Amino acid sequence: AAQPEIYKGLAGVPVDYTAISKVDPASNSLLYRGYPVQDLAGAVTFEEVAYLLWHGELPDDEQLAEFEQFERAHRALDHVVKKVIDELPLTAHPMDVIRTAASVIAARDPEVADDSADAELRKAKRLFAAFPAVVAYDQRRRRGLELVEPRDDLGYSANFLFMTFDEAPELEVVDAFDVSMILYAEHSFNASTFTARVITSTLSDLGSAVVGAIGALKGPLHGGANEAVMHTFAEIGTAEAVGPWLDAALAEKRKIMGFGHRVYKHGDSRVPTMKLALDQLVAHYDRPDVLDLYDALANEFIARKGIYPNLDYPSGPAYNLIGFDTDQFTPIFVASRVVGWTAHIMEQRASNALIRPLSVYDGVERREVPAREPV
Ligand code: CMC
């Protein structure tokens, strides 16, 4: 019999409809609920984008005020979550920490047993509000520093930076960070979002789906790439070293982190916007040297392979300039992408079909269990 066709990695296979975002590689564009992401960045806040992704429309003043009030009321690190984090060894990666924290937050949610659509949305918003404290506190405890309580007179991004660095952040830094959060928030059926949808498709709960999604995001082929970009820069050292370094890396068939994309083959639509935010940070911190290596590697790799940077390429050095530890970059991605994940979880629930593909067996043919001598 003819072998059925295999769609390895589900590449190019549409598996469902979504009204949340449109990735269009042909026009190199990304729309959130119809709005081009580069138009949202800088025009509205990350909180407004989160509201848009969940509710389908940008909030009016009253809706925004209500959402901001809710978010600000749920920012503090829960004492049990703090205790659990304190028990985790520093050898555990920050992604292990935020994955564990997400599980504890979800299990301690006041509406944990209510899986109605309204309750699930509130759970999503509580996770969204709680993650910055997890990232900030984990970075601080690794530096031997105390927890910083949130400030409810600051917006999401400003407060995130305040809790991490214990000083009021400057406006340009907040703006650049907010842009990165907007760009990371949603990207259709990427691996972690699909993971969340698979878990949801069994009618499991939102917390389980978010925890699974964090696991999928951790890998260097997905979210882990923003961290890996910094390791690559450290390994290369200087712009002059790019050529020989690339010769060796390509000879070893290494993947160059922060380049390439499953969907975009001619450049990631989010990169120009994030590059502007990086430029803003470079100017703010007066670190033009950062761009030497950045440009050298990008130009050289594009020239040689025709493979373009993805969002993780500019966001890695941006987070480094702001002062985040390299291993916190992917947890920051979690704090943003939880919006997309939970929007998809709710969409999946609303028109659910169990996600259960087929496999084609290519193992040993049917055989007899060997007879054993009775003992
Ligand atoms: N470095 C070197 N070669 C690459 C790279 C890269 N970054 N990306 C693609 N290629 C080559 C690949 O080796 C293959 O070559 P060949 O046909 O000779 O075997 C060809 O390009 C096609 O690549 P592929 O791996 O089959 O494509 P894919 O769609 O499976 O992979 C990807 C997409 C993102 C996994 C891959 O580009 C990659 O590993 N990139 C590095 C990791 C990375 O930056 N990930 C972040 C992804 S985007 C944002 C996010 O999710 O965080």
TrEMBL record:
It holds the Pfam family Citrate_synt. The keyword Acyltransferase applies. One of its GO terms (molecular function) is citrate synthase activity. The active site is at residues 261, 312. GO terms for biological process: carbohydrate metabolic process; tricarboxylic acid cycle. Keywords: Acyltransferase, Transferase, Tricarboxylic acid cycle. It catalyses: oxaloacetate + acetyl-CoA + H2O = citrate + CoA + H(+). GO terms for cellular component: cytosol. Pathway: Carbohydrate metabolism; tricarboxylic acid cycle. It comes from the Bacteria. PANTHER family: CITRATE SYNTHASE (PTHR11739), CITRATE SYNTHASE, PEROXISOMAL (PTHR11739:SF4). Belongs to the citrate synthase family. This is Citrate synthase. It comes from Agromyces protaetiae.
